[in-house]
Amino acid sequence: MIEESLQEEACLFVLGLLSETDSQTFHAEMARNRELRNFVAGANNATLALARSAPPQELSPEVKQRLLATLRLPAISSAVVAFPKRSWRAVVPWSIAACLLGIIAWQGSSHQTAKSRLQAEVKQRQVEVQTSQEKLTSEEQQFLGVKNQLEKQLGAAQSEKTILLAQLAELNQKDSLAQSQIEVLDSLLKDRPQAVAVSVWDSKAQTGQLLVENLPVLEAGRDYQLWIIDPEIVAPVSAGIFKVDAQGKVRLSFKPGQTVKTAAKFAVTEEKEGGVVSPTMNSMVVISGG
Q1: What is the mean pLDDT of residues 157-170?
Q2: 111-141 in b/e burial notation, b at 16+ Cβ within 10 A?
Q3: C-alpha to C-alpha distance for 16 and 19, rounded to whole angstroms
Q4: Is residue 199 part of a domain?
Q5: Half-sphere exposure of 253 (CA within 13 A, CB side)
């Protein structure tokens, strides 16, 4: 923005009212200040436009003859010129007004230029914001797409894991059965020949399962007791006590009280409630291997 004192000096420069020294100084300032040069050009154009708008006036015969004599031209009847001879005091007010109009026009042009520049910047920022929003929306959609894809892959991986675990359990079961010793215990009861038991023994795990059917229900104070006969152990090894239900059935998971290396036979005896340390051989009900 040009200072007010410099604007006044520019008006005097346009009107030709600056001294020679001041005019030279002002010329030097214009050479450095582009904004000042634009201001002077606007003020000069406004001053010229105001001067040209003045109505033409006819010269007096005396003035006309003097001009013709100066130019050494033949006399002519009448002539009209646009700028009659006037005192500079009469011209200055109008020139100052024209200069002020130039200032106003220049300031209005500067304001319009600044407004246009600001509008362009606002529009540019709006475009940048819109572009950023579109980019963010695109990236969000890509993220959601990747997220959905990963969730699907995770679900598929979990399903595969479940299938693999089931297959592994099945293989372990088959492997366990393949390594297990299965024995059928036949009835020794004359009145219950259909009594039977099946033992499944895992020597490595030292555990087993016993399935019994058609054994008679015992009276109160009596239990059935399972025994494992190992040739390397002097006495049969107790593997637990049990009772049967009303149908003579039971499923028993058992583990012997000591390590059994070779389970040669399995047998079940009828004992007092709570079991005994050594089996009562004449009360044996079922045995494997005859």
Answers
A1: 78
A2: eeeeeeeeeeeeeeeeeeeeeeeeeeeeeee
A3: 8
A4: yes
A5: 2
Count CA atoms closer than 13 A to 31's CA, side-chain side.
6
User: What total of structural domains would you count in the chain?
Assistant: 2
DSSP string, 108-162: HHHHHHHHHHHHHHHHHHHHHHHHHHHHHHHHHHHHHHHHHHHHHHHHHHHHHHH
What are the residues facing 252 on neighbouring strands?
210
Note whether 97 and 190 are same-domain residues. Answer: no
The overall pTM is greater than 0.90: no
Q: Are residues 106 and 208 in the same domain?
A: no
CATH of the domain at 187: 2.60.40
Query: Residue 157 — very low, low, confident or very high, per pLDDT cuts 50/70/90?
Result: confident
Q: Which domain holds residue 265?
A: 181-288
